[in-house]
Write a structure and sequence with these properties.
Length: 166
C-alpha cells in the first residue's frame, strides 16, 4: 500500500483531519499525530479500528505497522474490536465501592444482560470496564458514559441514563 492508497482507505475527511494534526508537530515528527489519527479513524469506523485501517494509518504517517498496533493496543480509548456505540465504565474503586459502586455495576450488568467487556446484541452499549477512580470520589458512586461523568448514582438514575442512550 502506498500513501495514496492509504489515503483512499482512510477517506478524504479523515486525511484532512490527520493532516491538521501532523501540522501541529515539527517536520518529520508526524508519528506524534498517531494517537489523534487513530482516534479520528476509529470515529469514522463506528468506534473501532481494524488491521486494514491501522496499516493505512502507518503508511500515511510513515510508520512501521507494529508501532501503530502498539499505540492502538496501549491506549484505553482505542478499540481494536467492534464494540457498542455508547461506552460505559463504572468506577468500583474505594470511594465508589464504599458508596455502592459494585451494586451499581451489578445493576448495569443485569439491566443490559451483559458483563464487563461485552456489548449488547443490538450494538447500542459497550460495558467497557471497571474504572480505578476517575477523580470524582466526592460524588461517588459514579460512571462515565461516552466520556461524560454521571455521579451520585442510584439504580433509578442509572436506568434513566441508560434508557436515554439511542
Ligand atoms: S473512587 Fe470512584 S471516582 Fe474515585
Amino acid at each position: 500500500m502506498d500513501r495514496e492508497q492509504a489515503g483512499a482507505v482512510l477517506g478524504t475527511q479523515a486525511c484532512k483531519e490527520i493532516d491538521n494534526w501532523v501540522a501541529k508537530f515539527p517536520e518529520g515528527k508526524q508519528r506524534a499525530a498517531s494517537i489523534a489519527a487513530l482516534r479520528i479513524v476509529q470515529h469514522e469506523n463506528h468506534g473501532h479500528l481494524n488491521v486494514e485501517l491501522m496499516d493505512a494509518v502507518a503508511v500515511y504517517l510513515g510508520m512501521e505497522p507494529i508501532a501503530v498496533y502498539e499505540v492502538a493496543s496501549f491506549y484505553s480509548m482505542l478499540e481494536t474490536e467492534p464494540v457498542g456505540r455508547h461506552s460505559i465504565s463504572v468506577c468500583t474503586n474505594i470511594s465508589c465501592l464504599l458508596c455502592g459502586g459494585e451494586d451499581i455495576l451489578t445493576h448495569v450488568e443485569r439491566k443490559l444482560g451483559i458483563s464487563v467487556g461485552e456489548s449488547t446484541a443490538d450494538g447500542r452499549i459497550f460495558l467497557k470496564r471497571e474504572e480505578e477512580c476517575l477523580a470524582a470520589c466526592s460524588e461517588a458512586p459514579m460512571m462515565m458514559v461516552d466520556h461524560v461523568y454521571y455521579t451520585q448514582l442510584t439504580p433509578e438514575r442509572v436506568d434513566e441514563i441508560l434508557d436515554a442512550l439511542e
